Amino acid sequence: MPGQYSQFVPGFELRSANDNNRIYLFHHLLGEGAFGQVWRCTDLSSETEVALKVVDCNAVGNESLKGIEKEIELTAKARSAMGKLCPKFYEAFRVDLPDPLVPSGRSFVKYLIMSMEFIDGVPLDKLIEFSLLNETVCAYVVYNILLALKDLHEKHIIHRDIKAANIMIGKSGRVVLCDFGVSRLLEKEAQALTFTGTPFWMAPEVIISYSLSQKSGGSGQVPGGMRAGYDCRADIWSLGVTAVEACLGHPPHADKFARMPHMVYLTIVKDPPPTMDMAKYTGTVLKGRSAGCVRFSDTYRDFLGHCFQKCPDDRMTASQLLKHEWITEMKEYEKDVVKDRLISNVNTYLLWEARQGEDVEESSEDDDDVAQEMAIGG
């Protein structure tokens, strides 16, 4: 990470620009990316654990900064719409700190700070890297994301980046939809035009809309009466991809285009919708199991079929999918039992993660035992 973040280290204390009594104590780095760093911190005024996003305003540029400020606004709106299905948003402020690259201390760097709820758990993509979810546990996760999408879509908010990496599973089994950095608030009946999302999870109309918009010079109007644009139903396609990802370990087409993800656009638009026809996965190995050993229920396949309608008008809404048999079957199976299985998966993963780095001879054997236990429990 660029040197401008080098002053943020464990033990560093940062005072809020909104409240002089609020001081954040930095513990450890949770992650970093193009837009800055995310730290696990303690708000010493309340002894609350928080996730603090730190962004160098000068390094990211004006357009990116506008996008981050939009994320702040939409995260707050999403929290009001979704409740516990979205992380709490505490505050945002800007602060000038001495530039660590200029020893004189006469130069300052402006940082944007976002304080949000710390979710103690595991990102779903990390969880399924360790052990795939079975259908019932997957249905529980999807059920919670559908509840979140129902609330978002009723507020005319498109998430635009639904995928396992943006879903946190807490130690208590809480499912949380995160990262509203590319979300969009639409006016009623309006449609988005921008090309946003992650390739394998992208709905066909998002790709088509970008192409048509380019041909129209950005106006959205193209010859023949066609109009570029997409709406909340694009999230439903991405949710279907995520449901596949949770059970297979990767989204559709990832095995073919793993090294060239942007080549998948034409396939998504031109090819028939994805299915769980395991003949297409012959030779694929799913976490040590041959694909031929994996069977998926008809209700799961039918659920995916409603998500993967190429025409958005034919796609079910979040409200409709909440009534689908695949979801209601899970609820009838006793939701708390399924939730307990998910909690077991999370705790087993965290146990395995804690063991990493321990120089113990039997660690490899122990990890195999843990993975087997998780596969049975999940």
Automatic annotation (TrEMBL):
Catalytic activity annotation: L-threonyl-[protein] + ATP = O-phospho-L-threonyl-[protein] + ADP + H(+); L-seryl-[protein] + ATP = O-phospho-L-seryl-[protein] + ADP + H(+)
A Gene Ontology cellular-component term: cytoplasm
Annotated GO MF terms: ATP binding; protein serine/threonine kinase activity
Residues annotated as domain Protein kinase: 24-327
Residues the entry annotates as binding ATP: 53
Gene3D superfamilies assigned: Transferase(Phosphotransferase) domain 1
Pfam families linked to this entry: Pkinase
Residue numbers spanned by region Disordered: 358-378
Protein's name according to its UniProt entry: non-specific serine/threonine protein kinase
Organism: Perkinsus olseni
